[in-house]
């Protein structure tokens, strides 16, 4: 058994398979799940695990070169918008209409569903490389 890091075997295995340029959708419990990508559903109950917990766990394991979130998050969910601004300072975070986030998520290689029950707590990550 792993000593630290992500213990969920499905998520740990999916992360190990990612490469440069692959996209990962981290989404709330209400986001429509696109057909095609591998899905790791971590939702247990409303709010558990939170978007922040899952995002922080993934960021500890992944190199991320960019992120895309819905522009609507700024008004509908200021807490999630603040979290994203903290985790992705500067040009690493782009905001587009929610409809575009859903369209882009169809090209994701992995979807990680959280138990988050607040709107627009979604982000599409683009994997980078460590060298």
Helix-strand makeup class: alpha/beta
The largest β sheet comes out as: 6 strands, mixed
Q: Low-confidence segments, ≥5 residues, pLDDT <50? A: none
The shape, in one word, is globular
End-to-end span in angstroms? 28 Å
Count the beta strands: 6
Report strand order across the widest sheet: 2-5-1-6-3-4
Strand fraction equals 15-25%
Structure description:
The chain has 131 residues and is α/β, with parallel strands linked by helices. 31% of the residues lie in helices and 22% in strands. It is built from 5 helices and 6 strands. It has helices at residues 9-16, 51-61, 73-76, 78-87, 98-105, and strands spanning 23-27, 38-41, 64-70, 93-96, 110-113, 123-127. The longest helix is centred in the middle third of the chain and has 11 residues, at 51-61.
Key attributes of the depicted protein:
six-stranded mixed sheet, single chain, 131 residues, 6 strands, alpha/beta
